[in-house]
Amino acid sequence: MRREDERRARILLSRLAEPYDERVQQVVAEHGVVETVGCAVRDGRAPGGADLGRLVARLARAEAVDDERIAGRLGARILVPGDPEWPDGLDQLEHPPWCLWATGPGDLAALADRSVAVVGARASTAYGDHVTAGLCVDLVARGFTVVSGAAFGIDATAHRATLAAEGSTVAVLAGGVDVPYPRANTGLIDRIRRTGVLVSETPPGGAPARMRFLARNRIIAGVARGTVVVEAGLRSGARSTLKHARELGRPVMAVPGSVESLMSQGTHAEIRLGAELVTDGAEVAELVGRIGDDLAPVKQGESRAADGLTEDLRRVWQWLRPRSSSAVDDVMARSGLTLRETLGALRELERAGLAEELLDGWQRRPVGAR
Amino acid sequence: MRREDERRARILLSRLAEPYDERVQQVVAEHGVVETVGCAVRDGRAPGGADLGRLVARLARAEAVDDERIAGRLGARILVPGDPEWPDGLDQLEHPPWCLWATGPGDLAALADRSVAVVGARASTAYGDHVTAGLCVDLVARGFTVVSGAAFGIDATAHRATLAAEGSTVAVLAGGVDVPYPRANTGLIDRIRRTGVLVSETPPGGAPARMRFLARNRIIAGVARGTVVVEAGLRSGARSTLKHARELGRPVMAVPGSVESLMSQGTHAEIRLGAELVTDGAEVAELVGRIGDDLAPVKQGESRAADGLTEDLRRVWQWLRPRSSSAVDDVMARSGLTLRETLGALRELERAGLAEELLDGWQRRPVGAR
What we know:
Chains A, B: InterPro entries: DprA, DrpA_SLOG, WH-like_DNA-bd_sf. Two copies of one chain form a homodimer. Chain A is of the alpha/beta class and 370 residues long. Helices cover 50% and strands 11% of the residues of chain A. The first copy, chain A, folds into three domains: 64 residues, no CATH class; 187 residues, Rossmann fold; 72 residues, Orthogonal Bundle (Arc Repressor Mutant, subunit A), CATH 1.10.10.10. About 4% of the residues of chain A have low confidence.
């Protein structure tokens, strides 16, 4: 019963208050959704007696809407925390969505579990589009779902390349899932609806208002296990997606480009602020995979062990992969050490239990072996 | 007398042993140059009785050379540690040079004091050359000397752009200062000799042998206050210059480029390993200047204070300059925060004594004011 009440309260609340309404978020954090909405309905005030202002003014109209019926008619489902399809960790956002509307054949939680957000400037360059396409095709080959925002530029290229590679893609919209925006991308958005998942926290019919675009970015960051920005001007909204990913402790990545391109100024600024520079899908997969591993207790030990290494050892260790071997030549080239230094470091890592030699090269020692 | 003995011993030693001869370096570290060379001359052995091998075999020929006379004839000077012209901190290299040969009108120590090494691939691209030229012109305008290796590609472009901007440039050669190499750069090297400083640890007449190129890179890193690599393949020697700069605790910087350019693979790898991404002369100057400041005691406090800041505060603080103000707009764009967040962060930095508001914007609070 409690779960049903919570679900109803969240759906109603999504018609009453934007998720970035700090006052409502505070009341909910203190009293819970059921109590907050119940009080508003009963007393026209918040549980503590605080004025909820416009929220109450919207009550009558919101109560008249039957969202479950609307969902049925649209072929959409309404997700709330605790549902099997609710993406892992989405509630850890500073302002989590009240609920999510989803449509499309994919299972959002399952797709999110191995996913990367690929986002960027609307005014992308040919370079940015080209890199985005290569990155997405590569991520699809590694079994990743690509999450983006269906906007012009990098977003649209990310979805298109993923679909072309027959991969799974999730689009998070700022307006309702029945309000394709930008209109010129209606065809693309329809294809995502047919093959992947369309997601929005805005109820059906809701307009893609400016604040909702900014709010939408946090959901992209919250659904995906890591976020890559391919191109971004200094003031690009894509940078806010990175900020949310960082707040969630998820990998934050940026692709470099010409120092003379305005569309790389934002990615360079992010790298200077601590985002990881990535140049291909392998590097993205390594980072997103690594954090996935880091959440498991044993690998944390491994990462802690690596923290204590000397610089040369870390250089070499960082280029070893956990489940496939790397040739010494390759490790040497990537680490920038001499052959002697590389071999020395590998032997030392072996002694420390952090690396092992196979027939065709070296790999990180499997955790269970320690 | 002691200083004269040391000088004579170092000059003789530079004819006897390459500075990367670990065995000789060990004996010298233990017994000093005077004792080591004295013993070799007297007993044909090291002070502890160890065999110095080929060093002793070279003695007779080396003693027959009058290097002070050669220096006089070449218009060169021989520098040893303790000389006013000996660059600060050069002795902190793992294998410091025995002595340096210098020629040209510049004062090496004075130039080194505000200098940046700009190095990179021999097979530079048009992009790399263009960025190098812009960077050097910018650094000259900020009063920096550009240090490089006179090689083809990025090195030559760095020297040429610096000379074109009427700046000071220092070339560190692998062979003797009278052995211009590569030969095609003889004209360029002659211009540096006439206007800046040519430096080498290899005695006059010495060939630019392969090992000496690698050894030369550590001197570039040791002379300059920071090192930027503009373009580098994965196996580029320029990466070893960065490695030495890092070992000296000096700023290590790399310029990003297209992820599809082989000549940016090395710079991207370095950024992934911790090199600071830089896109223009201002960013280079800020880093090299900052470390310079960090050596002064009070600024260290400032940097420690910044270490404890929240991410938003650090983002904002990092874009404030110490001696000129930045507009709020500009700080906002660079930090990637909203206007509200930026203003909030500035106020908080002000309360912490780390920033102050001027008529036309904000700046880092002068150290003396705290």
